[in-house]
Amino acid sequence: MRSPSIGRRARPAYPVLLLVAALAAGCDRPATPADAWQDPSPMVTAAQPAEPTASPAPPAASSAPAATVAPTPSRTAARRVFPVRAGNVDYHPTHGGYPGTDLFADCGEPVVAVTDGVVLEVSRVDRFDRRGPLGPNNGGLSVSLLGDDGVRYYGSHLSAIASGVDAGVRVRAGQQLGKVGRTGNANNVCHLHFGLSPKCSGHDDWWIRRGVVWPAPYLNSWRKGGNRSPVAEVTAWQREHGCPASPGRSAAGG
User: Fold this and answer.
1) pLDDT in tens, 22-71
2) Tell me: the pLDDT tens digits for 194-205?
3) What does the H/E/C string look like for the chain?
């Protein structure tokens, strides 16, 4: 009697062996984080907040709840606006003696907060005297604001300070702080002196408050609806210079 195997073509066994080996290797290899699917996190930007997404159903059993990390606000994501709310404003990219910008506009035009922050200093009385001392009172009526981004924004030569704008008061971007004027050493010309600087506490630092970096590139951006941030430049200046204890030879300007 013929054997059943006689006359049949023998099938090679190596595909089955390879499959068994692969399955065995997969079972023995420990799982890595890359093996588990993770839903992508929505990206949030200042211009376009992420839309809420439905959370996946929790697993049936869990050893411990997943830890959550609170978002850290970005100092460069703050909203910024042009400091004078008027259609006819002119300014020059440079300034005499130290970095700053004079924005020329009609007296009485609204001066607004560049960004969200807290009012640092307010001068409601024009104490400027050409006989001296020069420097501390040059700005006349003025307001300085510490933005949430850590930059101090300073405006001077105002004709009036808005009611309720006092040191320690919180304001929002675009909120009126005062009006363009010609107080202090404005030489009878209506304009706003505008300065960017770090906050230096512990002494009257009018020589820093009046401005340490050139504002024009940032003003150009804000005027067109942009949001260019002075944080990096102001931070770099303070890292290099600290808080100078005197104005040096320059006492001019507001």
Assistant:
1) 434 433 333 333 333 223 333 322 333 333 334 444 444 433 333 333 33
2) 999 999 875 679
3) CCCCCCCCCCCCCHHHHHHHHHHHHHHHCCCCHHHCCCCCCCCCCCCCCCCCCCCCCCCCCCCCCCCCCCCCCCCCCCCCCCCECCCCCEECCCCCCCCCEEEECCCCCEEECCCCEEEEEEECCCCCCCCCCCCCCCCCEEEEEEECCCCEEEEEEECEECCCCCCCCEECCCCEEEECECCCCCCCCCEEEEEEECCCCCCCCHHHHCCCCCCHHHHHHHHCCCCCCCHHHHHHHHHHHCCCCCCCCCCCCC
Residue 246 pLDDT grade (very low, low, confident, very high; cuts 50, 70, 90) = confident
Q: What is the pTM of this model?
A: 0.70
User: Residue written as tokens 């290797």?
Assistant: 25
Exposure string over 23-54, b if 16+ CB within 10 A, otherwise e = eeeeeeeeeeeeeeeeeeeeeeeeeeeeeeee
- Pick from 66, 79, 74, 81: which is nearest to 44 by CA? 74
Do 174 and 113 form a contact (C-beta atoms < 8 A)? yes
